[in-house]
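Thread: quick sanity check before group meeting

JM: Hey all, I'm pulling together slides for Thursday and realized we never actually wrote out the predicted structure for the chain we discussed last week. Dropping the sequence here so it's in one place. If anyone has concerns about the input, flag it before I start.
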Amino acid sequence: MARILDRLFSKGKSPYGGYELVREVSQGGMSRIWKARHPETGEVCAVKVLTPESVELMNVFKRVFETDEGAIALRLNHPNVIQTFGYGQGRKNEYYIVMEYVDGPNLEVLSAVGDPRVTEHRLDLMLQMGAGLQYIHDEGLIHRDFCPKNVLYAQDGVLKIIDFGLCIPAEVKHRAAMSRAGTPSYMAPEQVRGQAVDERADIYAFGVSAFEVLTGQRPFPRSATRNRRMWDHLNVKPVRLRQVAPEMPEELETVVQKCIEKDRRLRYKSMPQVMKDLRAAIGSAAS
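JM (edit): ok, ran it. Output follows.
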């Protein structure tokens, strides 16, 4: 770790902490992910480059990383959370984050095609997702964009939650910039309304994600537009788990439905509560 951090901030030809961008892995509206390699050691990392156009995202980056919260992100260390090695400002006012590289697809892709890596191990994958999200909360952070596309499946079967580097500290109670940012198909109603969010917004997203991993479907219609998907979270009653997968135990359906209650007062208040009931429900399924 020390060797990596030393190189991240050394002066060199590469504007991305000494790492050279090798291949673009994915692209979103506000960032691009690159596979990168250090020219001297050959070490491989992932470099997330924030686009200069994403002004609001830049503001979030500065608020999180240019305060003491940056130290929290750098010290996150959990098997189910992607590890961050460093961050900085590159050329043309670009900001970048250097992370561990995971050579594997995300859960959204695997769930959509019914990949056996998901269908045969879906209960274990739920526990891994929950364990990683609980750890993030325990470290004082709220993810705000938890969803299957932000969970990578490594070759050894271990899940890695990504994109936590731009989340907000849990103690931030004011209405933060980009409070409506996120993936519409997984946004909690209060997040859609632009209200201040807490851990329960992540719990809602976890419930929707768990439903998708368990069934290959979502509890809300796959609407074509972003606005319609957000409207569904406010107004459409979610499909119950056993309507899609009747083989699932009632206890598991109860956990998922409590996670996706529209009124956050009726949701689980914390991930430890979710995990306790989830393990009990999975235990009943195995017995």
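AS: nice. Residues 107-286 form a domain with the Transferase(Phosphotransferase); domain 1 fold (CATH 1.10.510.10). Residues 1-12, 173-178 have pLDDT under 50 and may be disordered.
JM: adding both to the slides.
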